[in-house]
Input
Amino acid sequence: MKPLIIFGNLASASTSRYYIQEEGIYEVIAFTVDAVKITAPKHEGLPVVAFEIIQKEFPPNEVNFLFPAGYQLNNPINTNIFRRTRFELIKSMGYGCINYVSRQAMVASNIELGENVLIYEGAIIQPFVKIGDNTIIRSGANIGHHVTIGSHSFIAAEVTIGGQSNIGEGVFIGLNSTISNSIQVADGSFVGANSFINKDTQISSKNIGIPAKIY
Ligand SMILES: CC(C)(COP(=O)(O)OP(=O)(O)OC[C@H]1O[C@@H](n2cnc3c(N)ncnc32)[C@H](O)[C@@H]1OP(=O)(O)O)[C@@H](O)C(=O)NCCC(=O)NCCS
Output
């Protein structure tokens, strides 16, 4: 199995490296970030390589990638835009991305996953769920049967999504929110923390509250 390069030198990179190391699935050999973001030559004992020279140092045929970047505190509404563009860049450079599915998640055997999907501990993924590329499901989320989640989406911890709902691409669903069953959450929707979505949302809308209102 190819060793792994993790994108980032902050909390999301450290957290995903911690889990991957604990579970002993892949050997992580380096972190990478843009040269301007490098603050030290090593992060947690591993080299931090400038993203601009990653192909030269670690060509795509020798390593796999994990791009675990999550919620951006300085850009909460548009968190998924950076996530999409950087994932697409990594793919265009020829890298394969792994999926990380925690051994402590409860995942039905017939779900379908894209690549660079991260599913953290305690998440429940029921049968017939389909999840696109580059989507993150944080700890304790409960994804009901026949739910689809598009690429480049971020589902925060303890989110509940009722059965047969469709979550679009680039959607952000904040901590502890609930999406009722058979709801269409449109591409680019933002759902604030602790909100309740009981109606379909509009593209790139900002939905907050119980029940959610559009802002
Ligand atoms: C929606 C959000 C981005 C707003 O953040 P903000 O721009 O800093 O806004 P503020 O905290 O200043 O709140 C503005 C107003 O909206 C209200 N508000 C903000 N978020 C709310 C929420 N989720 N539910 C209900 N009301 C909310 C505030 O109470 C405040 O009301 P006020 O003007 O009457 O005092 C933020 O609250 C949020 O939900 N972030 C997601 C956090 C998350 O899930 N992180 C995942 C980490 S893995």
Observations:
- Helices lie at 11-23, 54-57, 79-92.
- The longest strand covers residues 28-33.
